[in-house]
Amino acid sequence: xxxxxxxxxxxxxxxxxxxxxxxxxxxxxxxxxxxxxxxxxxxxxxxxxxxxxxxxxxxxxxxxxxxxxxxxxxxxxxxxxxxxxxxxxxxxxxxxxxxxxxxxxxxxxxxxxxxxxxxxxxxxxxxxxxxxxxxxxxxxxxxxxxxxxxxxxxxxxxxxxxxxxxxxxxxxxxxxxxxxxxxxxxxxxxxxxxxxxxxxxxxxxxxxxxxxxxxxxxxxxxxxxxxxxxxxxxxxxxxxxxxxxxxxxxxxxxxxxxxxxxxxxxxxxxxxxxxxx
Length: 277
What we know:
Shape: globular
Structural class: alpha/beta
CATH architecture: 3-Layer(aba) Sandwich
Strand order of the largest sheet: 5-8-7-6-9
């Protein structure tokens, strides 16, 4: 019989504790082109996903595939340098398993970053969307199946998916440093292809400000475990109106993300600096 999810989590936690006793307070997931933030961490330990039981392997360009434990601006963090995507072929449970493990390690909140296409015509490449809500258009849900009450409730409420206090901290930091950042709605599509002009138009009409291929599954699992979430989405290409769309490659996305990464990294570190501990 397959091992229960709860037991898999405990096994992964035990494997991590066998490598480090570092106690992180905040978890950070790094999106496409945003992996360099991990280089700012004063490292206490690094563990490859391949060295941990039940962890899937990140296969996407620019995603390193390791957990980095240490201090970021003096704040104890664990960074997922490389996320997992549904389009890679993993199940939603595999995609979100690391979030459950980080929660079991004791993190108090999670910061999720990603690269996205801007479907609000006011957005420009390099802008940061502080996500206040999302539209989930993915074909599967990580909470589907038997629910384990030790992890969270059968029907978790999603009326406040993104923490208001964390959003204020991020927007305040952006204003302080003159960084273009706006609250908005993120929509999640399956990928891996980028959307068509008609799909971008549909997303805009649905109320989306930016769109990507990740993050919402991790949010669902984080909220299932009653964990506050901050999502920062870096706009890497303008996708609306259709006349503004240009052919975009993953190399283009990574290049734009890396050019704007210092601003996003600064926001993350400013949010961490705002906590007393």
